[in-house]
């Protein structure tokens, strides 16, 4: 197939950085704000930002139902941070009226790393990526508290407060999610990983 077009949900958050990272990963990328624009892309990135705001705007712009339909139909989606929260079937510490897109059989906790750790950076081995660990930039990030049997865990960080590690990257079928922001590091390997997922889905 020809080069797939990957949209970046452009309601709020760090949209531009994802457009740049996708272009660097040799994808055709464009912003998506309206249902007609969603219909024209082969895949979607949901950026970091504020998940409650993005979800409110998605409802307002008439995107929430089309998003759910495309996810159910197998469209590849990559969610970072707030985008990860939107892809979760279950959200802890969300707002009562917070709607998600869902699709990944996981429970995420919003703002999970705590106040003293509002933002931090750490090196993370990422399953399926050769070479150096990925630099994880975490900004008021969620973690994944539970996953269903169909979910592959791609990356974890050691817990500051106990023995068990915290899951920070997962994949289920065509859906990919990370707690952290690879679009802010200049290392485009996670975006390349997603572009390969999109290409494989189109075959
Ligand atoms: N950097 C981010 O995307 C932060 C996510 C934000 N804490 C939320 O709940 O949506």
From TrEMBL:
<comment type="subunit">
    <text>In the presence of PdxS, forms a dodecamer of heterodimers. Only shows activity in the heterodimer.</text>
</comment>
<feature type="active site" description="Charge relay system">
    <location>
        <position position="183"/>
    </location>
</feature>
<keyword id="KW-0315">Glutamine amidotransferase</keyword>
<dbReference type="GO" id="GO:0004359">
    <property type="term" value="F:glutaminase activity"/>
</dbReference>
<keyword id="KW-0663">Pyridoxal phosphate</keyword>
<dbReference type="GO" id="GO:0006543">
    <property type="term" value="P:L-glutamine catabolic process"/>
</dbReference>
<dbReference type="InterPro" id="IPR002161">
    <property type="entry name" value="PdxT/SNO"/>
</dbReference>
<dbReference type="Pfam" id="PF01174">
    <property type="entry name" value="SNO"/>
</dbReference>
<comment type="function">
    <text>Catalyzes the hydrolysis of glutamine to glutamate and ammonia as part of the biosynthesis of pyridoxal 5'-phosphate. The resulting ammonia molecule is channeled to the active site of PdxS.</text>
</comment>
<dbReference type="GO" id="GO:0008614">
    <property type="term" value="P:pyridoxine metabolic process"/>
</dbReference>
<protein>
    <recommendedName>
        <fullName>Pyridoxal 5'-phosphate synthase subunit PdxT</fullName>
        <ecNumber>4.3.3.6</ecNumber>
        <ecNumber>3.5.1.2</ecNumber>
    </recommendedName>
</protein>
<comment type="pathway">
    <text>Cofactor biosynthesis; pyridoxal 5'-phosphate biosynthesis.</text>
</comment>
<keyword id="KW-0378">Hydrolase</keyword>
<feature type="active site" description="Nucleophile">
    <location>
        <position position="81"/>
    </location>
</feature>
<dbReference type="GO" id="GO:1903600">
    <property type="term" value="C:glutaminase complex"/>
</dbReference>
<feature type="binding site">
    <location>
        <begin position="139"/>
        <end position="140"/>
    </location>
    <ligand>
        <name>L-glutamine</name>
    </ligand>
</feature>
<dbReference type="InterPro" id="IPR029062">
    <property type="entry name" value="Class_I_gatase-like"/>
</dbReference>
<keyword id="KW-0456">Lyase</keyword>
<feature type="binding site">
    <location>
        <position position="110"/>
    </location>
    <ligand>
        <name>L-glutamine</name>
    </ligand>
</feature>
<comment type="similarity">
    <text>Belongs to the glutaminase PdxT/SNO family.</text>
</comment>
<dbReference type="GO" id="GO:0036381">
    <property type="term" value="F:pyridoxal 5'-phosphate synthase (glutamine hydrolysing) activity"/>
</dbReference>
<dbReference type="GO" id="GO:0042823">
    <property type="term" value="P:pyridoxal phosphate biosynthetic process"/>
</dbReference>
<feature type="active site" description="Charge relay system">
    <location>
        <position position="181"/>
    </location>
</feature>
<dbReference type="GO" id="GO:0005829">
    <property type="term" value="C:cytosol"/>
</dbReference>
<feature type="binding site">
    <location>
        <begin position="49"/>
        <end position="51"/>
    </location>
    <ligand>
        <name>L-glutamine</name>
    </ligand>
</feature>
């Amino acid at each position: 197939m020809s080069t797939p077009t990957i949209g970046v949900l452009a309601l709020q958050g760090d949209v531009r950085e994802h457009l740049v990272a996708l272009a660097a990963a040799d994808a055709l990328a464009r912003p998506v704000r309206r249902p007609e624009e969603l219909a024209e892309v082969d895949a979607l990135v949901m950026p970091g930002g504020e998940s409650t705001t993005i979800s409110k705007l998605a409802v307002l712009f008439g995107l929430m139902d089309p998003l759910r339909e495309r996810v159910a139909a197998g469209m590849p989606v990559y969610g970072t941070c707030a985008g990860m929260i939107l892809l979760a079937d279950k959200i802890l510490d969300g707002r009562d009226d917070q709607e998600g897109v869902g699709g990944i059989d996981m429970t995420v906790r919003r703002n999970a790393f705590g106040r003293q750790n509002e933002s931090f950076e750490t090196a993370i081995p990422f399953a399926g990526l050769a070479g150096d660990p990925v630099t994880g930039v975490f900004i008021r990030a969620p973690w994944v508290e539970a996953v269903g049997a169909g979910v592959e865990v791609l990356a974890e960080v050691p817990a500051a407060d106990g023995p068990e590690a915290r899951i920070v990257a997962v994949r289920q079928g065509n859906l990919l999610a990370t707690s952290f922001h690879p679009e802010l590091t200049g290392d485009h390997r996670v975006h390349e990983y997603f572009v390969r997922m999109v290409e494989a889905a189109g075959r």
